[in-house]
Amino acid sequence: MIKCLIIDDDPLITDLIQHYCSKVPEIEYCISCNQALDGLKLISNQDFDILFLDYNMPELDGKGILEMKQDSSKVIMITSNKEFAVESYTYPDIIDFLLKPISFDRFYKSIEKYQSMGQEKPARRNPETFFVKDGTKWIQVQIKELTHIKSESNYVILYSKEKQIMSLMNLKDLENDLPDYFVRVHRSFIVNTKLIEYITSEEISIPGKIIPVGATYRNVVKNLLH
User: Fold this and answer.
1) What structural domains does the chain harbor?
2) Separation CA 163–CA 168 (nearest Å)
3) pLDDT digits (tens, 9 = 90+) for 17-29
């Protein structure tokens, strides 16, 4: 499954590409931002397979981001500058470019090009922080401060001792990006095992909260005892 990030200062473009992404079953999720620096923070703290990157942006342009990014995501440039096609081949991360206006057919060809490369998922980095979107804000989460995480329909709620944050994402995706001491013990709950007070076959206690143990996760919980 493909995870995408769009960095473009034009909300109409980000909305269009997100719409296109929603039509491709192989794309697991796609998030966007309209500020280049926000995009750099996301790249630094999360793993993406494809980066849709605007070439012309204020403050920091796409070329600047290409020179600064250190992740292994492949880049599809968004530009109205046809001449950039020649220059793009000097950047190994660039696999394609989309000229505005962008049609779905041309967009999909870029996705097919990525898939034909057999790109492997980047190694899990387990950073100390990551960013989640809450409404219109990107909030930095300190991982070690999380007590537990709960799934609510298409959202997750991240709990710490001080606050809770609700964000539109999949619990499974988040599980893959957390350190090993975060363990899923129920289809709707992930817990910080460093904070466990006691365990039974039916529940786990952490400060201020009792977490149910799902029937299919009891062996996972038993393994915590060893």
Assistant:
1) 2-116 (3.40.50.2300), 129-224 (2.40.50.1020)
2) 17
3) 999 999 998 898 8
